[in-house]
Amino acid sequence: MDFNPLKCGTTVLPSRKQVIRAARAESKGVSLGFRAPDFELPEPLTGKLWKLEDFEAYPALLVMFICNHCPFVKHLKKDIVKLSNFYMKASAFKGLAVIAISSNSVTTHPQDGPDYMAEDARLFKYPFPYLYDESQDVARNFGAVCTPEFFLFKKDGRRPFELVYHGQFDDSRPSGNVPITGRDLSLAIDSVLSGQPVNSIQKPSVGCSIKWNPQ
């Protein structure tokens, strides 16, 4: 069940490079095999509270740390929606469960607050819950450091979800000319849903640093 970005409309970037003014960070420090921590977070769009246990029936869970303002997230946003729609609606499997979480401080970045999150989810027609981590405890428990950051877990019997992929969406960046394909993440998802091992050689995701609350 390969995700074919060409059929979904691969995003081809303009030739002129963009100047990105953002604190860059790379996903790191979380070992494969890490168990997904429990959480309970609100979805600003609907007001619903979501927990890890809500996804126990699924064979795989993709947790994405994103936000509204980051140029690295904006660069991939439409293609994240395409990829999520493809796997969440897969008929050959129960489907992939997907959630997105914003943990940025609204003190320093009010544009990432819950009201704006709801607007973003509505505008881009997110097929997944977009959750608000006001305390930033969930980001810390996951070991998240940047946006976007991708955590792909597989179900392991009755045990909590096990981390099998913690890497990039693909090689595309907002400051370059590489087309967006979602190749790295989609290959990992295909492996999980087909019962195959995920390649342990994984390139870290690159993005904006999570904006922690001022101390």
**CATH topology tier name of the domain at 67-141 and 169-215:** Glutaredoxin
Name of the CATH homologous superfamily of the domain at 67-141 and 169-215? Glutaredoxin
Helices, by number, come to 5
Which architecture name of the domain at 67-141 and 169-215 does CATH use? 3-Layer(aba) Sandwich
What do the pLDDT scores average to? 89
Anisotropy-based shape: globular
Strand order of the largest sheet: 6-5-4-8-9
Alpha carbon gyration radius: 16 Å
Spans of at least 5 consecutive residues whose pLDDT stays below 50 are: 8-21
Number of strands: 10
Protein name: Thioredoxin domain-containing protein
InterPro entries: AhpC/TSA, PRX-like1, Thioredoxin-like_sf, Thioredoxin_domain
Pfam families: AhpC-TSA
Domain Thioredoxin: 30-194
Describe this structure in words.
Strands 6-5-4-8-9 form a five-stranded mixed sheet. A three-stranded antiparallel sheet has the order 1-10-7, covered by helices on one side. A two-stranded antiparallel sheet has the order 2-3. The chain has a domain at 67-141 and 169-215: Glutaredoxin (3-Layer(aba) Sandwich), CATH 3.40.30. The chain is 23% helix and 21% strand. It has 215 residues and is of the alpha+beta class. It starts with a helix and ends in a 6-residue tail after the last strand. The protein is built from five helices and ten strands.
